[in-house]
Amino acid sequence: MGEMVTFPANGGTCSGYLAKPASGSGKGVVVIQEWWGLNDNIKGIADRFAAEGFVALAPDLYHGVVTKEPDEAGKLLMALNIQRAEADLKGAVAYLKEMTGGPVGTVGFCMGGALSLFAACNSDGDVGACVDFYGGHPAVKYNWDNLTAPVLGIWAEHDDFVNPNIPTYKAELEKRNIPHEFITYPGTQHAFFNDEQPEPQYNPAAAKDAWEKTLAWFRKYL
């Protein structure tokens, strides 16, 4: 359904996977990769957004590198240049905003969940809604005072990597009266939305409900 495109970013260009609905237009959503890279799973999620009427762009934050090995994925996550990622995400948001004519949404998974919230905190109002699927990255710091987008947080019950941060996120959002909703799915593990992972890590029922809530969030706020 989609195609690879390039867009201005960081004084140069960044590539990404762009998927459009059959109508050719719609609200824009930036889909942000897990630590594996811009793989077929993330492209498939962009395609799913397009099938629901959104214009979806998944930027390639690893610039061509994709892995299936957890050890390598962990190294790639830790080696991510946060300043460059910020610039690439700003470029993706600006590209989609110009294409669609309005504020865009951000959504990401695992590392990408952290970067979805990070992008919303650095968008100067260009991000109109944010969804964070169990996001975490030890080097990402949030500019909470710059956040204006409503935030939907989707969490797994059993996730020692991410869950200790949730009370801080909630306190920062409440302090600034940012509309938000946090949902923790009972019995789930980190990355429960990823259907390329075996069950029980992948949880079809929770993934289905989280997808429906994500679509509703973007349709409400974009």
UniProtKB/TrEMBL annotation:
One Pfam family hit: DLH
Dienelactone hydrolase domain: residues covered: 16-222
UniProt-listed InterPro entries: AB_hydrolase_fold, Dienelactn_hydro, Dienelactone_hydrolase-like
Alphabetized Gene3D superfamilies for the sequence: alpha/beta hydrolase
A single MF term (Gene Ontology): hydrolase activity
Entries under PANTHER family matching the protein: ALPHA_BETA-HYDROLASES SUPERFAMILY PROTEIN, CARBOXYMETHYLENEBUTENOLIDASE-RELATED
Protein's name according to its UniProt entry: Carboxymethylenebutenolidase
Organism: Tepidiforma thermophila (strain KCTC 52669 / CGMCC 1.13589 / G233)
